[in-house]
């Protein structure tokens, strides 16, 4: 049939067919990628190379550490939670050799006041005020904290053994600090899992974070650790040896170990340490009470704040990361970086898939009314659709199982129904991230578009047990 003879509805049928091929092929590629990780995970479990050891909490919690440790927390407009975070951390980690550094800005007096109240009577706390007006970037604030650490070392004649990075809303595990301290004997960068806390008033938006982290920090990260592929730090629950930070600072020409121009300095930190030949370790351990030793926190509970947070992740990792980090020479690391940076493409494919749902439904109605021909499904297209349907079922089952293991069967069931919401957030974040990236290419300055925190899990009644 000539193009001139095609009706508008016929053009829609052709469009639907082409979009179906596009989405199906890229979904299949994504499926093969995920199945490779699944297969490696199962092989590692079967061979005993991937396991989660258990420890007796009573012998670990409060145990003395081998040398001075600095904990750094950058804070901007965190007056609602910083006090609770500091008090909980100091109670959970009573080790005398611990020192907590909280970074604030001169134009944020509320956070300075809240941190000062929490530090009252605590000799282990330093409040560091940045001379620049905030917000700059999280990395810039951490560089200011690093300079404060150097100053204390010079004045007091001491040398910290490690620096632990946390966010202003984190709830630390009492056993975490001794574990990180012991791990420094084998690695220069150690990362604990992150466990988002359930919230009664946001079972869906905040809930989708528990699904994603439950699977990522129980499977993908442990596989990368087992394969000795460089993995990104999470920016919380991350310990770096003091000597490695000094080397990173030296490599940066003395501008600081954290790149102040990066939106995702945490992601880059782990990869930089691995690239420089430093050993990294993902520390996944359970206590004898069955609880994972991890960093717990509330994650965004509204659609707007979730999209804003994930925009920063996508822009920093997938878009800026391509420019800033390039590609490693090792094929294994290259594969992992492809996985890290596939967010915008995955979002595009998901958008096309949801568009196809509406387009196919509309064409089916038009066909029943005699306004359009039935779409032609070739054997190859049919095979792709069957493969992708099976893949969707497998992915949903994996998501449910990993979520149920940490949060119980009811959350495992909810995890399946939260998948569409997770996809929608990813699509919205990717569109916003591309716009931000283009803005930066045109000379714009990207600032710390941080998530605001109103409640802390250590004191809030929002938390579900």
UniProtKB/TrEMBL annotation:
Keyword annotations from UniProtKB, A to Z: Membrane, Transferase, Transmembrane, Transmembrane helix
InterPro entries: Nucleotide-diphossugar_trans
Gene3D superfamilies: Spore Coat Polysaccharide Biosynthesis Protein SpsA, Chain A
Molecular functions per Gene Ontology: transferase activity
Protein name: Glycosyl transferase family protein
Pfam families named among the record's database cross-references: Glyco_tranf_2_3 (PF13641)
Transmembrane segments: 20-44, 345-366
Organism for this UniProt entry: Alteriqipengyuania abyssalis
Coiled coil: none
Keyword Membrane appears in the UniProt entry: yes
């Amino acid at each position: 049939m000539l193009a001139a003879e095609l009706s508008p509805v016929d053009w829609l049928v052709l469009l639907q067919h082409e979009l179906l091929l596009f989405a199906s092929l890229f979904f299949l590629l994504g499926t093969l990628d995920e199945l490779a990780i699944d297969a490696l995970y199962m092989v590692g479990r079967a061979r005993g190379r991937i396991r989660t050891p258990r420890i007796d909490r009573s012998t670990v919690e409060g145990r003395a550490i081998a040398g001075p440790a600095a904990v750094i927390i950058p804070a901007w407009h965190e007056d609602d939670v910083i006090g609770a975070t500091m008090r909980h951390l100091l109670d959970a980690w009573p080790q005398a050799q611990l020192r907590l550094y909280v970074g604030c800005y001169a134009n944020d007096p509320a956070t300075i006041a809240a941190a000062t109240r929490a530090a009252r009577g605590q000799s282990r706390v330093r409040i560091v005020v940045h001379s620049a007006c905030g917000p700059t970037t999280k990395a810039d604030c951490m560089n200011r904290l690093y300079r404060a650490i150097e100053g204390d070392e010079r004045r007091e004649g001491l040398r910290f053994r490690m620096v632990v990075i946390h966010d202003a809303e984190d709830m630390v595990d009492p056993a975490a600090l001794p574990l990180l301290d012991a791990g420094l004997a084998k690695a220069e960068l150690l990362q604990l899992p992150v466990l988002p806390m359930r919230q009664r008033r946001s079972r869906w938006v905040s809930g989708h974070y528990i699904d994603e982290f439950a699977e990522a920090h129980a499977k993908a990260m442990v596989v990368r650790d087992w394969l000795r592929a460089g993995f990104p730090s999470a920016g919380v629950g991350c310990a770096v040896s003091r000597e490695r930070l000094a080397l990173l600072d030296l490599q940066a020409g003395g501008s600081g170990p954290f790149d102040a121009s990066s939106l995702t300095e945490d992601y880059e930190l782990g990869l930089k340490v691995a690239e420089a030949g430093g050993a990294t370790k993902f520390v996944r351990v359970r206590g004898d009470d069955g609880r994972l030793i991890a960093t717990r926190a509330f994650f965004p509970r509204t659609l707007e704040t979730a999209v804003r947070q994930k925009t920063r992740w996508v822009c920093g990792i997938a878009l800026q990361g391509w420019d800033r980090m390039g590609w490693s020479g090792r094929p294994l690391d290259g594969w992992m970086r492809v996985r890290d940076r596939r967010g915008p493409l995955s979002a595009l494919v998901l958008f096309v898939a949801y568009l196809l749902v509406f387009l196919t439904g509309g064409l089916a109605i038009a066909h029943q009314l005699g306004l359009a021909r039935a779409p032609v499904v070739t054997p190859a297209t049919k095979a792709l659709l069957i493969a992708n349907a099976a893949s969707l079922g497998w992915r949903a089952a994996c998501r449910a199982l990993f979520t149920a293991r940490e949060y119980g069967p009811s959350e495992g069931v909810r995890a399946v129904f939260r998948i569409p919401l997770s996809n929608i957030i990813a699509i919205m974040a990717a569109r916003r991230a591309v716009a931000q990236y283009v803005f930066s290419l045109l000379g714009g300055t990207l600032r710390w578009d941080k998530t605001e925190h109103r409640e802390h899990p250590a004191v809030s009644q929002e938390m579900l047990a």
